[in-house]
Please model this.
Amino acid sequence: MTRLWRGFWGWYERNYTLNVSVALGLFLLQLVHLYWLSAEVVARRLTGTGYWDLEGPLRFLILLVDYTEMPALLGTSLIYLNELRKGFRWQPLLLLLFLNSQWIHLFWITDEFVVDAFTGSGALIGLPVWLAWAAIGIDYLELPVIADMMRRFVGAIRERRVGRFMREELAD
Model:
């Protein structure tokens, strides 16, 4: 089993740039979701006016964007686990905790609950509004992770790991 893990992490290290790029790309999509959350849901609760009410196919599209969060969480968790595997540091551990708090939001305190709690409509009436604010706070914990993924991507470009990946991996 140890040999299998060493092989996996070796492959992972060789494809670091690809892994960071995919994680960053998926998380950049989450910025669209966070914008919707802020401009529509939060703004409507605080001011009574929403600024990005999505209807029809766009509403379905924001739902799809929200579910790209799952592969983003898994891929980015591997980046931090790999770093912690090499030696303990607080920053990757903290970002890993921020990141994986998203599972609470995805499976327990969903966007549907947040909207229902703020508007007083739907099947979830009666649940406390503070829980909706907690879910929004959890959602915003992605921002430090997104910033770190951007930093890592820029670092990989500066180290010319992108070119190395293109030459070594895509040539096979």
